[in-house]
# Entry
Amino acid sequence: MGINPVALYQAVLSDVSEYLPFGPVGLGDIPPDASYKQFASSYLVSNYLKKLEVQNTVDADRKAAEKFLAANKNCKDWCLQFEFESDRLLFCQMVKELDEFFPLKATSSLIVTMIYSK
# Structure
């Protein structure tokens, strides 16, 4: 992590310290008459550093890479197809309106190439 977790913890603690008259305590040590702001602040402070614990992410990284590669392949094989002629006309009209609003000639020619490539 590129940001100092101690500095982040101190920033969170300073933000919620007005709701912690008994200081940062564990969830089991919160008094029964604590307000919801006191409870939420204690919960945030006590659980903040759990997000920063290093865990074994080999399996999750592998699954994410597989999912990314599958989505990338689906994007490569995707082709714009219209079921009806009215869909193509509507799409072309939308492209024309967008082109008039955002005059980017390269984008327009790319979209027109996509439409008529099939």
